[in-house]
Design goal:
It is a single chain. With 93 residues, the protein is of the alpha+beta class. It has one domain: HU Protein, Chain A. It is 43% helix and 29% strand. It has three helices and five strands. The strands form two sheets. Strands 1-2-5 form a three-stranded antiparallel sheet. A two-stranded antiparallel sheet has the order 3-4. α1 crosses α2. It is elongated, with a radius of gyration of 19 Å. The two termini are 20 Å apart.
Length: 93
């Protein structure tokens, strides 16, 4: 499911206009993005959680040349599946 499909499903199930559904989805994702940007954890019980993982600088290699390169420190968002979602997906087999 992509963002447009999510908006269409919300529109249909909540009896909203497309612009209202679009605004709700935008607010939802913007709020999650803002929280993660501020270093906060986002948790949706039973579904998933998102958090920021920090990586220190390290020395890597260029795969084409084999030359050593310094990789700067970075922060990346991580997704962790919730127990209920795992069980629901697993029971679909």
């Amino acid at each position: 499911m992509n963002k447009l499909e999510l908006i269409s499903e919300l529109k249909k199930q909540a009896n909203l206009t497309k612009s209202e559904a679009s605004e709700i989805v935008r607010i939802f994702f913007d709020s999650m993005t803002d929280a993660l940007s501020n270093g906060e954890r986002v948790e949706i019980r039973g579904l998933c959680s998102f958090f920021i993982k920090e990586y220190k600088s390290y020395t890597g290699r260029n795969p084409k040349t084999g030359e050593k390169v310094k990789i700067p420190p970075k922060k990346l968002p991580f997704f962790k599946c919730g127990k209920e979602l795992k069980e629901r997906v697993d029971s679909m087999n």
